Amino acid sequence: MRKKCFKKAVSLALCIVMSVTMAGTPVLADTFTDGSQLIVSEDAGEETPAAAISDTENGMMESEQIFEIEDNCEDSGYAGFSSENETSGFSDDNVLAAQTEGKPFVYLDPNLGNNGNTGVSATSAVQTLSRAMELVAKDGVIYLLNPLTVDSQMTLSNVTFRPGKSNMLGMLYISGDVTLNNIKIYNETPDGRSCQFSNDPIRVTGTLTIGKGTRIESFLGKSCIYVSQGTLNLNGGKIQGDTQNTVKHGGGIYAHNSSININGGQIIDSQATKGGGIYANGGNVYINGGRISGHRATYGGGIYLDQASIYIKEGGINDNQATKGGAIYTEGTKAGSCLLNIEGGTISGNCANESGAGIFAICSKGTQNDMDVKISGGTITHNYSGTGENIEENAIILMGMDNQLTKNTGFADLYLSGSPVITGSVTLADDYCDTDRKNYSPLIYVHDPFNVNKPILISPIHGDDPNTPAVIYANESIAENYQSHFCCKEGSNRELVKNGATLNWVVKVNVRLRTFDDITDYPVPNLEKSIYLKKGEKVSPNDVPEAAVIPGYERTGWLNESNNTTWDPASEITSDMEVREVWALVKPTVQVSADKENGCPSSKIVLTARATHVLDDNGIKYSYQWYKDNQTLDDQTGETLTVSEAGTYIVEVTATSKAGASSKETASKETASIVIPAFDHSYSWQFDKTNHWEHCSIGNENTTQEAHTLGNWVVTKQASIGVEGEKERTCKVCGYTEKEIIPSIYIPSYPVTGIKVSPDTRTLTRKDETAQLTAEVIPSYADNTRVTWKSSDESVVTVDEKGKVTAVGNGTATIAVTSVSGNYTATVAVTVKIPVEIEKITIEAEKETLTKIGESTELKVKIEPENADAQKMIWKSDNEMIAAVDENGKVTAIGNGTAIITVTTEDGKNTASITITVKIPDEPVINKTKGFGRLKVRSVNQTKTSITLEWSKLDGVDGYLIYGNRCNTSTKTYKYKKLATITNGRTWTHKNLKKGTFYKYIVKAYRIVDGKKVVTDTSASIHVITQGSKYGIARSVSVTKIGNKKNVSKITLKKEKTAQITAKEIKKDKKIRHHRNLCYESSNTAVATVTPEGLIQAVGKGTCTIWVYAQNGVYAALTVTVK
């Protein structure tokens, strides 16, 4: 890497030697005057004498004239020169012209230059253009450091002009007669950047002629050329303006009361608010050739004429775009008329988002002839207005704008003669005028001879007044051929009618036919069909739309919405009207069913109507009407009907869709019927062990229950030893048979001698908790092992027949188990202990106001209910700078103010708070702090000779003391000295410092107590280096990791846990030389501490801030929460 950097240094030295050697080659230049001896400071905006420029400002320090080669240099292009983030002792003014691609170059400064200089750098610039031309060969580059004024007649050839620095007033000011041949003017500084101009880059007040090979490129936010009461002749070359839409007027050329002559060349690809290519305010534009294309603007994509005139004979205005006036926007007023005269040339391929794709002409509050468009030749074609689906070919729009319309009001009028080619519409509009148009609008005047190969489409935009004139011929004989000259848009509500030598507008009657594509869910209209007819005509059957195929619907006719009557398509049309289709649902299919075949006097039959329709899945709704024996059943309009009489029942169903269409509108209604037979009971006997009754199977109804009438017992099986017998008896009424078991004859052989139960005790801790108890009969082989269970207190615990106990409420109960044989008993004590939760807590305080720093008060917590189980309480202060609280509720005063003390139960379900006020009456209390957290200091600006400090503003202090000195070196120690006392503000600048040197600072805040300054806060020290060396400062501090979490600014730790901070400094422009590594500080060491290496240690519950700060005071803040 060291060898590679050394080679680059050698190569750079050779390049400099060759440039100086080649600079002596002279070239011929015309005589002119330029320059002045006045220096204009662009930074301060003041005039400075040349003698005031110090040698130390030339950008190269005496101690740094030797190229330095470092081990870690990158491939930045030249050894010894800095990369973008690090400089090596050369200022911007001394960077050689590395962007000239090997061409000879020279720096020219008409204000500060000296013709005795070599011109190889900004600090050795020449003064005159003639000297600069001598020093560069053909195709060389001249870097201008201040505007060059040319006030004589001259021709410049074969050279490139570029700005020599990033901020200038302008480049070329032409007040003489100048011709440019093969001249390049680029906005590119020696280091490849764009220059910001505070004035016009190229200003012409004389005559400028642009010849072949000349190219002028864009200047951000400025027109390429500004012509004021001068002349611009474009005979060749190319002008390409700003494409970032930052220019207001004239992306290529801005002309004010000037003459613009375009005979050749190109003006291309520029953007502006008005006039993408050219903006002319007054004066004249002559187009006899050349091309104006590729421009974009809000008004006038190619050209914007403001009270100026234009004459077009040849050339093209093509492929431009605007909101209004794709090619040309021209406006005449009473204060200044405007003439657009087209004899030849081509206007094509332009577009406008709104109107006037080719030409937008408007007369604003003027009179007749203030805005005239005269066309006798040329081609206006393929220009389109609109966006999306609403694009149409539009050649010209003519307008007037005046809210006080009279017969003398001026409109943009069109004068036609000769044989021009015009395709697309010519729109006559007065929509910017008063609503009472009074038959006034733009007019077209036709003179003889006039011939077009295709009729010109005329489109009106104005009111409905009949007989408004549109075209006025010079005489009636020319008007005989009007149908070959003009036409109207097919389907328009206007028609041109000849009346002598005038074509007037006639308004037709409009019939609007509304049809539907679908009405299943909601009406979906088709595009409205509009038909224009003369009064008394009928709508042609071919113009009546056919009905759409919509499942479940049928078209039943048409409705005249104008008067809400039925419309007959065969009737005569006498006025505007709007008609729409009338649709109805087709009939539904209906069935009726009964919930059972028969009924009885106590059991009714439910009839259900089932209607179906092809549109059931689309939300069809039904309405019903029931009838019995052809008689209407009042109020029976539901889907079901409950009946208790025999007869013939009929239901009538009407369907309604989401769209509101109903089947009632069809020719008939849909019905269904059912016949119901007579109602009778059907009984059978039912019984249980005690009673019997009769049950009706139809009505599912029972008679009154009566007791059985049982006969005598009959033994059906005799009992014997070890075998049970049986007996039965029968009811004499219903036949029910009752059976019983006859016990077997039993002789015991193994009697029960005892019983035990496990476990012997049991505790349950929640309501409805269960546990299983187990009983053991002794001996286990006893003949009868059956047992019974019993609880002594069922409000505490219950037990079932299998020994399963269930908790009911707090207390202790005895569960007894007893053997059936021998009556032996064992017991278990079961305790139920259900925790009592805290329902509410409140804080009781000895005192709520503290009047001394360090004074404390004990807070007590009252728990409800009192028998609730105890929980740990967690205390917290919302402002520990006012009052701190420990884990036992002891509050200690820290500083004046109020703090809210909050206590929370450990389960987080209950919270209470109290406001503690700290109010120290009279004597001042000074909280002395030292460190980074409260009084933060950082450097905000550094120059070669100064450092500006900024610190955080503290409330309640009277001023700040600034201490500092140079940082210690290996050979010398510097003690802090008091530098300044600041009583207003929180910034201070240390001046007259040494470049490239480290300085250290501490800021102390103080209060005036008894007439003396008492220090309340002391900042951490910071270390800052002045500019002028290879070292810089940190721009910010980046925390990349806390513990195992990346890119976070907060962390939660458990008590006694640790987390390592990983952080780094982000350099501002140059590498950082450390006098001190990153430092760490905690705002509350009772919550968390941090080591000098950045290891966080969680100490106690709460939240604190960890600051990570660099040596110049920039920092990052981390939030640590300890639980």
Describe this structure in words.
An eight-stranded parallel barrel has the order 9-12-15-17-20-18-16-13. Strands 81, 84, 85, 87, 88 and 89 form a six-stranded mixed beta sheet that branches. Strands 46-43-49-47-48 form a five-stranded mixed beta sheet, with no helix packed on it. A hairpin with a 4-residue loop joins strand 69 and strand 70. The N terminus is likely disordered. It is mainly β. It is flat, with a radius of gyration of 52 Å. It is built from four helices and 100 strands.
How much of the sequence lies in strands comes to over 45%
Strand order of the largest sheet: 9-12-15-17-20-18-16-13
Q: End-to-end distance, in Å?
A: 53 Å
Q: Sum up the overall morphology in one term.
A: flat
Helical content band: under 10%
Q: Could you tell me the number of beta strands?
A: 100
The radius of gyration is: 52 Å
Give descriptors for this structure.
1123 residues, mainly beta, 4 helices
Helix and strand topology:
Blueprint: H1 2-22, E1 39-40, E2 47-48, E3 105-108, H2 129-135, E4 140-144, E5 148-150, E6 153-163, E7 167-168, E8 172-174, E9 177-185, E10 196-197, E11 202-204, E12 207-210, E13 215-216, E14 225-228, E15 231-234, E16 238-240, E17 253-262, E18 266-268, E19 271-274, E20 278-293, E21 296-299, E22 303-306, E23 309-318, E24 321-324, E25 328-333, E26 338-342, E27 346-348, E28 351-355, E29 359-364, E30 371-375, E31 379-381, E32 384-385, E33 392-401, E34 413-418, E35 421-422, E36 425-429, E37 444-450, E38 456-461, E39 469-473, H3 476-479, H4 482-485, E40 486-488, E41 494-499, E42 502-507, E43 509-514, E44 516-518, E45 524-525, E46 529-533, E47 553-560, E48 565-566, E49 577-585, E50 589-594, E51 605-612, E52 621-628, E53 631-632, E54 640-643, E55 647-656, E56 670-676, E57 683-687, E58 691-696, E59 701-702, E60 706-707, E61 714-717, E62 725-730, E63 737-742, E64 754-758, E65 761-764, E66 770-772, E67 774-778, E68 787-791, E69 797-799, E70 804-807, E71 811-819, E72 825-832, E73 840-845, E74 849-850, E75 856-864, E76 873-877, ...
Parallel strand pairs: 3-4, 4-6, 5-8, 6-9, 7-10, 8-11, 9-12, 9-13, 11-14, 12-15, 13-16, 14-17, 15-17, 16-18, 17-20, 18-20, 19-21, 20-22, 20-23, 21-24, 22-25, 23-26, 23-27, 24-28, 25-29, 26-30, 27-31, 28-32, 29-33, 30-34, 31-35, 33-36, 34-37, 36-38, 37-39, 38-40, 43-49, 65-72, 74-80, 81-88, ...
Antiparallel strand pairs: 1-2, 32-33, 39-42, 41-42, 43-46, 44-45, 47-48, 47-49, 50-51, 51-54, 52-53, 52-55, 55-56, 57-58, 58-59, 58-60, 61-62, 62-63, 64-67, 66-70, 68-71, 69-70, 71-72, 73-75, 75-78, 76-79, 77-78, 79-80, 82-83, 83-86, 84-85, 84-87, 87-88, 87-89, 91-92, 91-94, 94-98, 96-99, 97-98, 99-100
